Amino acid sequence: KSVTLSLLQSVANAFDFGGPVLCDAHHYGEGHINDTFVVWREDHSKRFILQRINTDTFTNPVGLMENVCGVTRHLRAKILAEGGDPARETLNVIPTLSGSTYYLDADGGAWRAYDFVEDTICLQQVGSETDFRTVAETLGKFQNQLEDYPASTLHETIARFHDTPNRYANFEKALAADALSRAKNITSEIEFIHAREQDCHVLLDQLAAGEIPLRVTHNDTKINNVLIDAATGKGICVIDLDTVMPGLSAYDFGDSIRTGANDCAEDEPDQSKVHFDLHLYEVFAKGYLSTAGASMSMAEKKSLAWGARLMTLECGIRFLTDYLEGDHYFHIARPDHNLDRARTQFTLVRQMEEVFDQMLEIVCPDNR
Ligand code: ATP
Ligand code: MG
Ligand code: MG
To answer: What is the CATH number of the domain that holds 41?
Structure first.
């Protein structure tokens, strides 16, 4: 659904921006989920982010905004206590003029506004080891600042998001149905997944046994969800909090490794170009543990290595499930696009398995 300037202006007028604002109907940034716009105060003294929440993906925007407000309130208090600048180091929700944290337009669109975090850069790709380390430190700090937040009070904004056994079960259902007779094309991939059924349970079993804690997790720990200070190069602010949910540190760590510790595209069709980069894994792990490690047990540190493997396996399973079901969920640009994506994930998993002892040693040296 497009957004006209008049809709945007009427939505903007509902928020408490401290004065009238001017809108621009061009989308801002490179997000794929929400519709993101920038609005300026009329006197150009300050700008804000105005976003329409994608309610196809997030069916409970009210619960979602409760999560965002709860978590950012907590972060603000922590940042103040640490002598930081809460105006830049966390998202700040701008309320509406009637005091609500979101606004519903006449078509049912759900909107929210944030302060614009100025003087930052938002990287789209891992350009250097330093960047990757910075992202790791910032995500580790985010997790650490939320260590004492009651994770179980958060809404699950996407149900069973990283429930890997459930993703496995959904794959089995799609395979049994084989609606498009595609199973015959993927016998080796099916075998690959079946051989790893037990792996899918590792993290949730550890959680159930009380060996690792339930945490507040971000669940979309891509590099472009961390803003970096343009002047100092330091990580400033973790953004895009829609998928903040109860989860495991291994999920956030693992997804960053899946997306960042290689130099291939997620949909690279040529498997000879797919390389898991153990060195980048180590760079990320050291950065992450430098800010989050103090509050993590040995078992939780080890779970991070499993997180890398399982987030990658789970993602591959989801791509292959979508392939079997006819490519309904992930947008495809070519036939077999989801199959290529799945294969790339499985190649990475295989490579991680080969160096798994080293991966464990890096996150938990000498079992310390
Ligand atoms: P994704 O595809 O990562 O899920 P999204 O659609 O959920 O993205 P966001 O990540 O929230 O959207 O925002 C899109 C982009 O807008 C960000 O990558 C960033 O460049 C910019 N952005 C978002 N919030 C802010 C902010 N408060 N200050 C400055 N820039 C911001
Ligand atoms: Mg984003
Ligand atoms: Mg997002």
So the answer is: 3.30.200.20
